[in-house]
């Protein structure tokens, strides 16, 4: 598996992120790298506090309690091979997490899914969504009750001739296949395609036969691109289950997740504009809002976060 050597795990007493912590500890042990436990304190309620000194005292007390909580969590998980650090920060969660990544050059963020039942029973809350959009390194959002190891992993790819897209596809497949190999899980790979401008092609006066031939050619091209992408020993040895589907990604990918009982989805959340059919912007979020599994999200090479250090 790709060696993440500088892992950041985000923990909060309200999300009960033991599955995320166990995942982070397991990776840190395997890779022998650095593991940082981060907890972000909420802004103090100034309406209930009077005076700067009182605010400082409250923050100091809260930080001390949170640090002690994190230390207690690590007592049964401590390992001499782990270079452990603990950091307590106060502020807006997603901003402080990304700034921590920028400062310390973390190569993976692991956090717990926020179960926002009041928002259409969405698994991912505001902080997770912000991280998946804007964090420069991979973000692994772990479902609260997720057990190790994974049993069925789905990699969502979009083969194209664009070099930046190809490198992202390769990274998605590399991580998904490595996790599947390490955890002896089934590997599923999905590519959702459609005929670009299908409605206009259909209405252009083209005969039904010509239209069907055009569509068949598009499917053939997508099949060949997917086959070319998967032509690697580490992938073929896993005998992956392939899902080449015509349709919309925001409908078809969640359907595959449900039908195949997937417990980890590996996907990209940001891509250069202009690449038809790829998970981009609202489409990616619609997928994430419909799945009920852990998700590992990646950015393309060269992605620059809009968040800056203060």
Question: Can you walk me through this structure?
Answer:
With 310 residues, the protein is α/β, with parallel strands linked by helices. The chain has 2 domains: 1-145, Rossmann fold, CATH 3.40.50; 149-310, Rossmann fold (3-Layer(aba) Sandwich), CATH 3.40.50. It has 10 helices and 10 strands. A 10-stranded mixed beta sheet has the order 3-2-1-4-5-10-9-6-7-8, sandwiched between helices. It starts with 5 loop residues before the first strand and ends in a 12-residue tail after the last strand. Residues 272-280 have low confidence and may be disordered.
Topology:
Layout: E1 6-10, H1 18-31, E2 34-41, H2 52-74, E3 83-90, H3 93-104, E4 108-112, H4 126-134, E5 139-142, E6 152-156, H5 163-183, E7 186-193, H6 198-202, H7 208-229, H8 233-236, E8 241-246, H9 249-259, E9 264-268, H10 282-290, E10 294-298
Parallel strand pairs: 1-2, 1-4, 2-3, 4-5, 6-7, 6-9, 7-8, 9-10
Antiparallel strand pairs: 5-10
Helix pairs in contact: 3-4, 9-10
CATH C-level class of the largest domain:
Alpha Beta
Biggest β-sheet: strands ordered side by side in the sheet: 3-2-1-4-5-10-9-6-7-8
Order of helices and strands: EHEHEHEHEEHEHHHEHEHE
Strand pairing plus helix content: what structural class? alpha/beta
Total DSSP helices: 10
Uncertain spans = 272-280
Give the overall silhouette: elongated
- The total count of strands amounts to 10
Task: Report the oligomer.
Answer: single chain
